[in-house]
Amino acid sequence: MEISARNVFKGKIENVEVDAVMANIHIKIESPQLVTAIITKESVDKLDLKKGDSVSAIIKSTEVMVAK
Amino acid sequence: MEISARNVFKGKIENVEVDAVMANIHIKIESPQLVTAIITKESVDKLDLKKGDSVSAIIKSTEVMVAK
Amino acid sequence: MEISARNVFKGKIENVEVDAVMANIHIKIESPQLVTAIITKESVDKLDLKKGDSVSAIIKSTEVMVAK
Amino acid sequence: MEISARNVFKGKIENVEVDAVMANIHIKIESPQLVTAIITKESVDKLDLKKGDSVSAIIKSTEVMVAK
Amino acid sequence: MEISARNVFKGKIENVEVDAVMANIHIKIESPQLVTAIITKESVDKLDLKKGDSVSAIIKSTEVMVAK
Amino acid sequence: MEISARNVFKGKIENVEVDAVMANIHIKIESPQLVTAIITKESVDKLDLKKGDSVSAIIKSTEVMVAK
After folding, report:
1. Interface pTM (ipTM) of the complex?
2. Shortest Cα distance, chain D CAs vs residue F54, angstroms
3. Euclidean distance between CA atoms A45 and A20, whole angstroms
4. A39 touches chain B (CB under 8 A)
5. Residue A33 — pLDDT band, cuts 50, 70, 90?
6. Domains (ranges, CATH) in chain E?
7. Do E17 and B21 touch (CB under 8 A)?
8. Given CB atoms, is C62 within the 8 Å cutoff of chain D?
9. Quick check: C10 and C54 in contact, CB under 8 A?
10. Are the C-beta atoms of A58 and C3 separated by less than 8 Å?
11. Gap between the terminal Cα atoms of chain B
12. Where are the alpha helices (DSSP H) in chain D?
């Protein structure tokens, strides 16, 4: 399966903080670069996300802004 | 000015492709990592974005998905 | 690969309209339900998307609104 | 009132899970298709969303990705 | 119909610029405040959007960032 | 630093409600106009956001819908 999202960063989960509905995931994509993802607790459970997992951070390009 | 978006990646613009309304910007954040941003032509003009510019790619953490 | 996006709808591409930077894809997920996706021309080319292809429409749950 | 969002799916709420700030809503749009929406608790209260309500799930087409 | 999006601004369309797939709409919500919306050409045609129309700009609260 | 997001509204924080992972921020941009932003608790802490702060609400134009 290939996805239309143009931005796929491979990395490792550094931290998972789970609340009742939402979760905050820190993914280290390349030391010391860190990506923060806010996803549902449902997804954390379904994918069994935990510290040290090899994952990809995926971002649709229409969501990226540019600052100069 | 500091922004609430948790993901800010510094890099250089590698390519700018401008259409009548939208534009596709490729930002090299760390060789060979590339971020694709779809922004308005208005912003490209306003910020005068061009190849070689030092910019930041900014992404709100609620827009990041995780795949495993 | 499993993705954290909670909404994945399988369907067939009914129409692909490509502009210089963006593309509009119509996906029939279940007659007569139709999903419209705006993605980059880059993705259309990379995934070779064309009418009749079996694809999935993927939507992060934070992007879904509810009206009543 | 008509909205520019191209994706409007009518369905019934199957589950409402409310946290202090966010809420997770499951909407059955056509058996067994299920849409997950993450919205604010504020909206759940304002629209008085509860299991069995007839609602629409609304998604802007720029938020839809395609996988093949 | 009420929508879960928490941000609804009434205003008048000041400019419509249409491309093959996407369109850029400027909405004056209160002089001199201006909202820019990027929506599909499909929606512009379907809602028959033109300069001077009274419309609402609608934004899901998870899409709003804060800078200080 | 200038950002590609076309919608920047200056205002004052009227309310901050913080949960374990997410936070709901009300920003009064012009009486009685109110913008609701859902951001991470991390950002609330990092920017030290509190009632009465002068802030900007920032919204990428691809996230704005139009209703008529």
Report:
1. 0.90
2. 23
3. 12
4. yes
5. confident
6. 7-57 (2.40.50.100)
7. yes
8. yes
9. yes
10. yes
11. 35
12. 41-47
CB D61 within 8 A of CB D6: yes
Q: Which residues in chain D have Cβ-Cβ distances shorter than 8 Å to E47?
A: 2, 4
In Å, how far is C30's CA from the nearest CA of chain A?
Answer: 21
Contacts of F38 in chain B (CB under 8 A): 62
* Calculated CA dihedral for residues E7, A61, A52, A23, nearest 10 degrees: 10
pLDDT tens, E3-33?
999 898 888 999 999 998 999 999 988 766 8
Q: Which tens digits make up the pLDDT trace of D30-51?
A: 766 889 999 999 999 999 999 9
Q: Does B31 touch chain A (CB under 8 A)?
A: no
The per-residue DSSP string of F11-52 comes to EEEEEEEE-SSEEEEEEEEETTEEEEEEEEHHHHHHHT--TT
Q: Is residue F51 within 8 Å of residue F15, measured between CB atoms?
A: yes
Determine the distance in angstroms separating the CA of D13 from the nearest CA of chain A, rounded to an integer: 17
The mean per-residue pLDDT over the stretch B61-66 comes to 93
Mutate to test the interface with F, among B1, B3, B4 (most CBs of F within 10 A): B4
Angstrom distance (rounded) from CA F46 to CA E53: 41
Chains contacting E with at least 3 CB pairs below 8 Å?
Answer: B, C, D, F
Asked if residues C5 and C59 have their Cβ atoms less than 8 Å apart, the reply is yes
